[in-house]
Design a protein that fits this description.
- By secondary structure, this protein is mainly β.
- It is built from 3 helices and 18 strands.
- The longest helix has 18 residues.
- The radius of gyration is 24 Å and the shape is globular.
Length: 339
């Protein structure tokens, strides 16, 4: 070992001599403050505009990620009162939204939900500039154009039997059980829908939620499951090389309109019904703003990336200037099917 170390040191000295120069590397310890804040907001026509503003934290200050029993599932947020959450959230920021270069709306802080709320309800086509200022941090800005919704038409809906395991088991006990479906019944809904994609740049997410009501220890509980299946190539994404949380590998509910450019597209999906009462399937086609589309796609890649020193880092997409976060836009159309 001493010989190897001496050889490595000799190589380092020789390399320094060949360079013939000296470089000073500055050391920044974990106490170095991050100069910026994080802003997260979504502009949707069905609700008032809200935003969450927090301080950016060094990764060394973030809580460790705990891996759950499932190999493809990570827990990023602890349950209960998390001190890190209160240290990061900002309650005294000045948050404003300018709409279409004219009207300006101020936000008020909602302490009960740790968010900022305005009186402005976005409309399709609005161009919104969101600004957040706090203390000596640079003012963070982000802009979005609220997309136009695409009409989603129901063509047919059928129920069919589909085998499931009566007892839920853990994958480490039975690794052949790739997809575990909590509270799923032996019946799936086969839903066929139709939508038209106009020419131009469009981005979409298809949401299919299986929902039922239930009582747990006398308390009302709503069970929701959003994993669905389809053979349509719209949902194929070769970059997603691993499964996650019940979603199979190479499958994504978020897709680029270039896959159906200018088409009237018929899509068939399957969603398993839930145990309980008032069983229903919610189907929603969301039109996404460009930046929000790339944000969701980067999150999909990040969640299947192994958290070790050998993995290539995944950059989460952000459209916030002088800060971090995402300001996205969503417009949607859909329906509810009761069973």
């Amino acid at each position: 070992m001493k010989k190897i170390q001496n050889f490595a040191m000799a190589c380092g000295v020789a390399a320094t001599g060949l360079c013939g120069c000296e470089q000073v590397l500055e050391w920044h310890d974990a106490e170095t403050p991050v100069d910026g804040i994080t802003v997260n907001a979504l502009a949707t026509p069905d609700t008032v505009l809200m935003a969450v503003v927090s301080k950016a934290l060094l990764f060394t200050d973030a809580p460790d990620m705990d891996k759950d029993k499932f190999e493809d599932f990570w827990i990023y947020e602890q349950q209960g009162d998390l001190p890190m959450k209160h240290a990061a959230l900002i309650s005294g920021a000045a948050v404003t939204a300018q709409v279409n270069g004219a009207e300006e709306y101020a936000f008020r802080y909602d302490a009960a939900h740790s968010r900022y709320v305005s009186d402005y309800r976005p409309r399709e086509g609005d161009r919104i500039l969101l600004t957040a200022q706090f203390d000596t941090f640079p003012a963070a800005e982000a802009a979005v154009s609220v997309p136009s919704s695409r009409r989603l038409e129901l063509l047919s809906c059928q129920k069919k039997y589909s085998n499931r395991f009566e007892q839920v088991v853990y994958p480490e006990e039975h690794p052949e059980y790739a997809l575990i479906d909590w509270y799923g019944e032996d019946t799936v809904a086969v839903v066929t829908v139709l939508f038209t994609d106009p020419p131009g740049d469009d981005y979409y997410r298809l949401k299919v939620r299986s929902i039922s009501d239930h009582e747990d220890f006398g308390e009302p509980v709503v069970r929701v499951h959003d994993v669905f299946a389809s053979d349509d190539r719209l949902f194929y994404d070769s970059r997603l090389g691993a499964s996650y949380g019940g979603w199979p590998s190479e499958f994504s509910s978020v897709f680029d309109g270039r896959k159906c450019e200018g088409e009237t597209r018929t899509v068939t999906v399957e969603s398993r019904l839930r145990q309980g009462t008032d069983r229903r399937i919610e189907v929603e086609l969301q039109s996404l703003s460009r930046d929000f589309y790339y944000y969701v796609k980067s999150c999909e890649l990040y969640r299947i990336t192994k958290q070790d020193d050998y993995s290539e880092p995944v950059q989460i997409h952000s459209n916030v200037e002088d800060g971090w976060g995402i300001f996205g836009g969503i417009a949607s159309d859909g329906f509810v099917l009761h069973f």
